[in-house]
Every structure is written in C-alpha cells, then in structure tokens.
Amino acid sequence: MSDSLERLYEAVIAAKDLDPATSRTARLFQRGPSKMAKKLAEEAIEVVIDAVNGNTEAVVRESADLLYNLTVLWAAAGVKPEDVWREMERREEMLGIAEKLPKAAVKMPKVLASKALPAKALSKTLPKELSKATASPAVRRRIVALEARSSRKRH
C-alpha cells in the first residue's frame, strides 16, 4: 500500500504546477490549503456516510478520493509519506500497530519517552497557541458527535 501512496504523492508533486484549467491537482494548489482541507473533510464525511449505510463499493471509491485529497494536503504542508510511515512505526513501538495514541497522557517507559518531542522543542517548531496545547497533556479537544438528525457537542 505505501508504494501506491508514494506513487500518488509523486504524481501530485508533478501535477501541482500544471495548468489549473486542466488539472484538478493544480487547481487545488492554486486555491490553497483551506480549499484542500475542505475537500478532504468532504471526502471523509462521504466515507463515513457510505460506511454507516453499508455501501461497501461506495466506501472503496470515496476512500480513494479521501486518500487523494489527503495526499494533496500532505504535499502542500510539506509532509512526505515517509514522515507518516515513521510516525506509524513510532506508534507501533509504543502501543502496537492497531492502536491509536490516546489524547490523554500515557505513561511511557523511559526509553520510549525519550523519543517524544519535549515541550521546549515544540515551542520552537509550532505556533505559540498550538505548542501550548500540544505540550500540555491535560488539554482536551471537544468531541463532535455525528447524529442522524442533528449534531451536538459533547465535552
């Protein structure tokens, strides 16, 4: 799978400077990161809806669109597929490949904790507001629940 995504990434990089009138990728780059993010979110929602409705074929099609738009956003953000794979490997060492890192602080063995980016380093690489939120394990993000009739925020 990573070969396919890496080929897609290279194709996205090659297409970003093409004519926006004929290239969807070039058009996304021309419109900027906010448009790229909007397209990514739309595709993610379509995948979710199709999965909930049990439409496997549509999940496959929309997932391909989702991966395309994610790859475009990666390229615009200067993220390479190998950066993501490296993070996946780091997480696998900590919790196993099938687990997502929890939002709350996890007590890590000292060996693994040394691989984490210290708060001081975060402040040099991220905007002030983001580095504070990322460095503090107590900070929690709101969770937005999707419901059939309406959406409501939970704390």
Note the main attributes of this structure:
single chain, 155 residues, mainly alpha, Helix Hairpins, two-stranded antiparallel ribbon, 2 strands, globular, disordered C terminus
Q: What is this structure, in a nutshell?
A:
The protein has helices spanning 2-15, 24-31, 33-52, 56-77, 81-95, 110-113, 119-125, 128-135, and strands spanning 143-145, 152-154. The protein is mainly alpha-helical and 155 residues long.
Low-confidence parts, pLDDT < 50 over ≥5 residues? 112-155
CATH superfamily of the domain at 1-79: MazG-like
CATH topology of the domain at 1-79: Helix Hairpins
Count of extended strands: 2
- What is the CATH C level class of the domain at 1-79, in words? Mainly Alpha
Helix content: 55-70%
Strand content: under 5%
Radius of gyration, in Å, reads: 18 Å
Q: Which word captures the global form?
A: globular
End-to-end separation in angstroms reads 36 Å
SSE ordering = HHHHHHHHEE
**Strand sequence of the main sheet, in spatial order?**
1-2
Mean pLDDT: 76
If helices are DSSP runs of H or I spanning 4 or more residues, what is the number of helices?
Answer: 8
